[in-house]
Structures are given as structure tokens and as C-alpha cells.
């Protein structure tokens, strides 16, 4: 049971027709740990320890009530008062303070009030979740709405999940959004800066366990690894501090890992104070200072205890926090400038605040008889360092301000409803549960234009400011808003941050710090997992041939589209160029020129033979076969032009078949000439049966039959699998080859094979007949021409297969031209020499002499 004679020593009371209760945590005491082995010790330090910055919460409360009472548009006939008590960060004192607010003055008799006592209409309080829960338990029994201005509601913490909260604490309202929004925001922040190797520091209690169970999988799902996890004590008793230092800093080497530059810290104000103690003692243990980016949620406000005001806090310089969106109400800074130790009679906080903030005493001697500097009472709050007290309204104080206004607007709405439908109503008769029903649907704009409303779970609908904390050696603190988190925004637009405004810790020299397990894999490389390591630790492997990676840290290289190819560094895809043997290229121009020149030479030779058609040298070797051979050679030279230029449907159909048939006619003519020589020699012998074959019938039959077979092969090719225009994407890097797809490769080689067969037969027959005694014998020249022809086409096959694209076509054109030129030169150049330069040899007498 509580001793009703022991009242809460720290409180602030201002009378009014209706009272709003408040629970704050500005003062605390240090106790020894309870061992249950001896009589519990009393307070170790007689003087309370103040958290000066939290006094602003009290000021925000008083300022909001003052504004409401002066505003004729809100509760014009009713004055608001408040009764604020301190929780001392302990459950016992929180229960006691709550019961004190619900009881008659000076007595712990709940549900009983004197007739002159003002009614408590709502409770605003709870700077940490444990205190909020303790207040909620009592207020729920009495059905009094409780508005939490700094509620850290966990997914699984001191409060149950959202649905269970509404069932167990239906009168609970939270002036901050659900904490999961902040966790999502941290993930987005880490992704924004590409920090994938981060450290996690969590308070060592059930809430910290639940945080890690939620956060670690969330980080992994988003490609982020926890390099280490360490726990911060929830609180430490005075006699445990030394042992705690030794135990906790065994992990200091791990925390100081230079690869881990981002630390996500989860805890509440008491755990922050413990962390400050550990960091303060690090230099005394010869430990290096930490140079990190501290990422925190709205739990922390970087508030120092009065005994810590000279401690260096620059370790946290450049920290980034998610704070509930706030603004600066007009008149607040002017209001706090009026505060003095005796500014109002009912303020029981101001004396301890003043003495500990300014390190002076309002009395000549303190309780221990030790002389201290005497406070003048005129000290300026703006002279205090920002770690102790801030002149601008903090996010937590802004929540207090809005919470008071939410209650006032709810009362005002009740009053207006009764005037409209039921006549006048005395607000003094309104029950707290009635305020609860209005608060559920309340929505209003505060003096700064921000909308205040709650969702179906009793949580404030608002956004978060991303704040960059600047800590200076003189203790001053500057908050810079560098971005915003909008939980209700569409996916991908929730986080907005201005990188250029962020000031990093001095150790980073204003360069964006890296927090990765290893260096990034640059474009052109992909990540390769290290065995036995977390997925954020990897090696960088170059992309395989033909693949690229165009971003940092790609899990795998990717193929380019078919019409593109990788650049030299394999970092991007470049469009392939269209490639074919164009008439504009030097190679094509050279080949075209050769084809035209040889064609012209062939025409000249044909003209010579036609002009001298009646001469013996022309008649002796079957004049008609000579014309057929020369005309076919002319077509051979000209058909090479079908291979130059962009392939089309017609050219693809004609290209190989025309070449095959024309060449077969030429080879057939050569074979017929050779056979004619052999038959003519054999027919000159007495009684030879070959005499009947001597003449044009045999030659014509050979040419027609041999050419017909090639024409039949080509017809079968065109009817079964004809050539067609195609695009070769892969043979040559960086090129799309426009080519004629042969349709059937076997038929193509059948055409070439048949020509080879004719050439070999011609070569064999000519070789065997090369020494026959005949005037103007051609077999020697045919033998040499077939040798050239076979050599060209035998070398053609490996050369053709080893080339790609337009060079493959060029090889075939060159083979056509060179083999045709070989036939033309070897067979006809000796005859042209005789006809043109040695006409005396082209006579019948010479023919008879040679025969004899």
C-alpha cells in the first residue's frame, strides 16, 4: 500500500474548471539494486537528478493551456487547469502519481473528490513506453482518456499488438504514428545511402528482443545485413555501473569496426543515458573514439542529465533521427523567456531545473552545508547548451502541445453539440468517457496549420521529419531538417531526403561514409558469394564474355538484347552495326572492278575469236564449244556481282544457283573440249570405231547432260529449302550480318561438290591426253587451268568456313573471279597470242607441218 502521507514532491498545479492531468519524467533518483538479502537502502543521492530538457514538456503543457484560456473561440465559458506530476522513471512512483491525480487532494482516496475540487477530464503522459503502460493500466480502470505524447508503441512490447491495445486500453491515444513506420523509414534510408553492413544496438529487454525479431528479417529482405548485434542495458543501478562498464566494453572492438559506419540504435531515454556513460568512460579505458553515423528513432531527444552537462557529446555529431513532424508555435519562445525560479507559485519543477541547469543554488547553503554559487534568478535560458535545454520547441513538446489542444477541441465539440441539440450543458458535468468518444473522431488544424487526427487504432496520423543533429564542443545542439518520411505516400515516394544538407561526423571529412562489408562491385563485375559469410560479404567477379553489369553490386551479369552487344568494359550495351558487303566499301569496289575488267577481257577474247572464226586455230578446237565456254566465263564474272550489296529475296535465290549452273556449263565445256581432243585422236587410227563419235554431237551431249544435272540439283534445292535473307546476330561481335541463309547447307555443298567432280574429271582426262600429237592441242592448257581451278576451290572451303560476315562473301567472290580468270588465262591466252601476235602460225601449212 502507498503511504498517503508521502506525496509526490515534484508537481505543477494550476487550477481551472476542468483539469488535465500530466505525467512527465523530468527528475529521477539513483538507487542501489534490490537484492532481497538485506534491508532496502534509501535514496543514495539525496538531491534529485534533473533532465533539464524535459522541463520543456512542462512548459509546452502550460503554454497550450494558457493559449486555450486566452482564446475566446475555444471553451469560452470554461477555464482549463492542469495538474502535472513526475514519474521518476519508476513503476511504483508512476502508479502513485497516477492515483494521486485520480484522488482527492492530499489523500490517496480514488474515485472520491471534494465538491469544490475540479474534475480531471483526461491524462497526458508517459515519456517512455513502460511509464505509458503503467499510466494506461490505472486510467483504463477509471475510463479516463489518456493521450500519450511520447509513446513508443512496439509491435510486440509493453503494449500488445494494435488490435489488442484497443481491446485492453480502449481509452489510449498515441501522439506518434505506429513505430513500424519508422522501421520502414530506416530501411529506406539505408537503401538510399547504399549502407548494407550495419550494426544494431538494442535495449536489453523484451522490447529490444521484439525489435530484433522484427528488424533483422526486414533488413535481410531488403538486401541489408547486420554486421553485429549488441545490447544496451535498460537501466543500471548505481552499484552496478563499474561492473557494467567492464562487461559491456568487451564488445567495443567489434563495434569500432571501420567497415561498419552506420549504427541503428533502438532504445529509450534511460538506455541513452547508460550509453553516454559508457562512451564517456571509453577514453579512460584507452579505447579509441567511435566515428559512426548514429541512426535513431523518435525515442531519443539527446537529452543530458544535469550531471552529464560537461560530458562531450560530439560522438553523436552527424546523427540522423526520425522525429515526429513538428513546427514552432508562435509565442512559445517568448513564453519561455519569461520563466524565472519564482515565475508561478504552483511550479514544483522549476527550482531543481534552475539549480541543476545553471549549476547554482537558490539558497546560500545546500542541504549538505556545501557552499555553491548563488542563483540570481535572472539567468537566461538561451545561454544553456542545447544538450540541456532548447529554446525551440522539440518534437516531444510539440506532441504535448497538440495533445492539450486535442482534449480542448473535444470538450469544445461536446459543448457545441449540446447547444445545438439539447440546450445548454455545463462542461463540469461532462464525464471522461464522453470525451473519449469525441477524441476518436477529432480532427482539427492547430495554430501552425498542421492537422491533428487519429486513425482507427488511436494513433496520430502524421509524417516524420528526418533530422540531422549537429553537436558542437561548447555543448550547443543544432537540428537540421534534411528530409521527410510520409508513411501514407505511394510506394517509392515515402522517403524524400536532401543529401547536400547533411553534415557527417568529423571523421568522415564531409564525404558520404560507406558502410559495406567490402568495396562495391563496379559495373562490369557481379557479386560472388563468399562461403560461410553473410550475403552482404562477397567477391567481385568479372562478367563473362558477352554479358554486362550496368550498376554497382549486381547479383548477376545480364545478356544484351540481340541487336546490341557489350562495350569493352562490359558496362553497357551498344547497338550493333548492320554489316554486309556494300558497293561503297573499298573491298567491294575492288572486287567489282575486277569482275568488270575480267568481263571486258572475256568480251574482247570472244570478239577476237569471232573475228577470226575461220582461222585454223579457232576451227581446230570446236569453235562452238569455244563460244559457249567464253560466254559462260563472262556470266561467271558477272554473277559475282550478285554477291555484293544488301541481300534481298531475289538475289538470295539467284546467287548460288546462277553461280552453280554457269560454272557447270563452263566446266562442261572444258570437259567436252578435252573429250573431243581424245576422241579425235583415237578416231584417226585406221579401223577405229571412235570415228563415228568425232563431231559436234558428242560435245553438245557432254555440255547439255553435265549442265542438266547441275540444273536439276539447283531446282531440287529451290523447291525444298531455298535460300532466303537472314540476320546473323552472333557470329561477329558488334555486328548484325545481313546474309543469305543457304536454307539447306547440304544442297549448297552438293552444288559445290558437283562442280568439283566436273573439274576433277576434266583435269584427269586432260592430264592423260596432254602428250597426244595433235595440232593446236589444248589439253596441256586445260590441264594447267583445271589445276588452278581445283587449287582455288580446295583452298576456298577452309577459308570460307573460317570467315564470318561480309568477308565470307568476299572469299567466295574472289574464288569465283580467280577460278574463272584461271580458265580464261590458261586456255585462251596462248591462242590469243598466236591469233593476234603470231598470225603466221595460224595457217593451214603450219597445221600440216605439225601433223607431219
What topology emerges from the helices and strands here?
Blueprint: E1 11-14, E2 18-24, E3 27-28, E4 49-50, H1 55-70, E5 80-86, H2 91-102, E6 119-125, H3 129-141, E7 146-148, H4 162-168, E8 172-174, H5 179-192, E9 197-203, H6 206-221, E10 225-232, H7 241-248, H8 252-255, E11 262-266, H9 269-281, E12 293-296, E13 319-324, H10 332-336, H11 350-358, H12 395-421, H13 432-439, E14 443-445, E15 451-453, E16 464-471, E17 477-485, E18 495-497, E19 525-529, E20 538-542, E21 547-548, E22 558-559, E23 564-566, E24 573-575, E25 577-579, H14 586-611, H15 616-619, H16 623-639, H17 649-683, H18 696-720, E26 724-728, E27 735-741, H19 745-768, H20 779-802, H21 806-837, H22 844-851
Parallel strand pairs: 2-5, 2-6, 6-7, 7-8, 9-10, 9-11, 11-12, 12-13, 25-27
Antiparallel strand pairs: 1-5, 3-4, 13-16, 14-15, 16-17, 17-18, 19-20, 21-22, 23-24, 26-27
Helix pairs in contact: 1-12, 2-3, 12-13, 14-16, 14-21, 16-17, 16-21, 17-18, 17-19, 18-19, 19-20, 20-21
List keywords for this structure.
alpha/beta; six-stranded mixed sheet; Rossmann fold; disordered N terminus; 852 residues; eight-stranded mixed sheet; single chain; rod-shaped; 4 domains
Structure notes:
The chain has 852 residues and is an alpha/beta fold. It has 22 helices and 27 strands. The strands form eight sheets. An eight-stranded mixed sheet has the order 10-9-11-12-13-16-17-18, sandwiched between helices. Helix 2 runs parallel beside helix 3 (129-141) and helix 18 (696-720) packs antiparallel against helix 19 (745-768). It is rod-shaped and about 155 Å long. It starts with 10 loop residues before the first strand and ends with a helix.
